[in-house]
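Progress report, Aim 2. The chain analyzed during this reporting quarter is listed below.
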Amino acid sequence: MKKKQVGRRAERLAMSLQIKRGPEMDSQLQIGFIGAGNMAFGIAKGILSGNVLPTNIKVSAPSLKNLGRFQELNISTTHSNTEVASTSDVIFVAVKPHLVATVLNEISPRVTDRHVVVSVAAGVTLATLEELLPKGSCVIRLMPNLPCLVLQGALLFTRGTHAKPEHGALLCSLLQRCGMVEEGPEAWIDIHTGLSGSGVAFVYLFAEALAEGAVKMGMPGALAQRIASQTVLGAGQLLLESDKHPAQLRSEVCTPGGTTIYGLHALEQGGVRASTMTAVQAATERARELGRKSAAPGSMK
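Predicted structure tokens for the chain:
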């Protein structure tokens, strides 16, 4: 790559990292994705709904399996991870945890101080990421969830040793259309995985059970599923926008001797509250276990 091109791209990134930055500056960034799974696709859709053009995004994957949907968005695709690294300012590493070491070892010679490397690999710690990249690399660990696909995600990130507040502001600006974006310490990332990453599946299970309850009582399955889905969506939206504690909203639905309190009693008899808390705990502890494995000497090689 020509020195002038590198210089211009570094200058663009420097401009974009000013705290008082306009959205038009996002459009100057070159964004790369290594990995073409659901998380990469959801994040890319969110970025595209902002001020970044498809021509400023490039995605790499070893096969054509998932690249077609990126091509439908007019995003450039390649099989070369080093090509993505060389032409990007912000690199999203969106591969399976066991592939992270291989990918970072491959692109490491191309990573410079102009890059922001964002990992969405579950369980791979900042310490591990920084060890695999050149000294002083700017690294951010991000945990999204599946609803990013419909721009309703819950995303939590934490900055590495050399990532400054400006880099966090940059990431927030890029991801704001993906859903809710929050920053916190790395210890919260595994909790977020249990709460929101895995929690999505817990909600699906509850929605399925709601619909099956309606089917048991005589409602057609397809209709029951649509109503259950809308019920979950509406309840979540109201909870988010009302700024009320869930217990307060729940009490507002209950009337003395009414249908809801009878149903809640049945749920409590089934231990739904304790089971849900235990599910979040189990998922969090599993995320922590994966993190310990990734940090073990030689585990990522």
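The chain is about 50% helix and 10% strand. The first strand starts at residue 31 and ends at 34. These observations will guide the mutagenesis work planned for the next reporting period.
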